Amino acid sequence: MSVPLLDVNAQNLPLEDELKAVFEKVLRSGRFILGEEVEAFEKECAAELGTKHAISISSGTDALIIALMALGIGPGDEVICPSFTFFATAGSVYRTGATPVFCDVCPVCFGIDVESAESKITSRTKAIIPVHLFGQSSDLDSVKEFAKEHGLHVIEDVAQSFGATYKGRGCGTIGDIGCYSFFPSKNLGGFGDGGLVTTEDDELARKLLHLRNHGMHPKYYHSVVGGNFRMDALQCALLRVKLKHVGEYAAGRLRNAACYQEALSKLPGVVQASEADCGCIEGQAAKLADQDVRLILPVAYGHNGHVWNQFTLRVPGEGRREALRAHLTAKGIGCEIYYPVSMHRQECFAGLPAHALSNCGVSDTLSSEVISIPVYAELTTAQLDEVIAAIASFTD
Ligand SMILES: *Cc1c(COP(=O)(O)O)cnc(C)c1O
User: Fold this and answer.
1) What is the dotted CATH code of the domain comprising 247-392?
2) 144 noted as active-site residue
């Protein structure tokens, strides 16, 4: 039996009848752009996430771009973002004409390292983008305090963390704007591209709505240049069906992550990352130096509601991550490297100013050590056992 990294059919096909009915309803309505399905989806997302305004957007990438646009960020501005993230975080900043300035991340929670961000501040810095990577919140108290001190906007990249919480509050509702994605592999996975922005600020919500539709108001009058950032009515209608289950999906992922932690931590040389080492790769390395550490398991911090978009192991030692990848692949276990090249090493950013690219050593370490294994909600006990057995039989 092989175990894929993700099985979208296992989640979608049990809803097939309901999805088909909804498709038919939209088909027959003849309304495909904006309208009642879009508004209903937005209202339901706002309720689910505990936010005042939720505005659907064409993709998670576009959610980041429109958030930056609404905050007036553009040429001459700098935006600090973590180097260890998916490309869209940085690409969006670049596409507004602003400069992405990369800082390092925490080796334990994979979130933005505010001390590193502090070293990247210039008179041009306008915003910071904490990315809640793999389903877990960044250290938002530190980010907020840092942003306040330097007068920065906070854009939360919640693409991988729909439904995650930080100290009991919803991720994406704590900064100025939260940006979500409904790409099929995300925790609320759609049937194509889609995204969402959230904000508690009425004025920002007005700007975002305006920018989503070419900056047009009233019809055919444009006081600002926006774009077509709309999400399809069909996509909204289909996602309304899945939104009702998003809590179950997260619970399934949490259950699978707990199962891995329980089983894998019993294997020789496997250690659990510790919340106490947050932010400190030297501290963590020193603590692990006298043990023969073969694998480091991810950890959910006590104050975070982790939604486990990925279950990401670290495999220290030259070439060992590649060896584990080959071993798992040979056994039919899906795995992937999120992400093999940090942003400060990307060819397209090579021309950025030196301070934008410096001192991201933890990101380099992580990009050489991480590997993600299947954690999707619908994994069966037999599949989980197979993944565990495959890792147990890795002896390199
Ligand atoms: C997926 C993702 C995005 C982009 O979302 P799309 O909907 O694919 O455009 C942005 N940031 C992060 C961290 C992501 O994982």
Assistant:
1) 3.90.1150.10
2) no
Q: How far is the CA of 48 from the centre of ligand 1 (A)?
A: 20
Who contacts 20 (Cβ-Cβ below 8 Å, separation ≥6)? none
| Chain segment 199-226, per-residue pLDDT in tens | 999 999 999 999 999 999 999 999 999 9
Tell me which fold the domain 8-245 belongs to.
Aspartate Aminotransferase; domain 2 (3.40.640)
Domain definitions of the chain by residue range = 8-245, 247-392
- The DSSP string of 190-203 is -SS--EEEEES-HH
- Cβ of 131 less than 6 Å from ligand 1: yes
Q: Which amino acid is at 129?
A: I
Provide the strand spans (E) within 200-288. 270-272
Q: How far is CA 202 from CA 158, 176, 177, 186, 222, in A?
A: 20, 11, 11, 28, 20
Average model confidence (pLDDT) across the chain: 96
CA distance 86 to 105: 13
Report CA(273)–ligand 1 centroid distance (Å): 26
Give the pLDDT score at 290: 61
> By alpha-carbon position, which residue is closest to atom 13 of ligand 1?
86
Task: Note the pTM of the prediction, 2 decimals.
Answer: 0.97
Residue 146's φ and ψ, nearest 5 degrees, are -60, -45
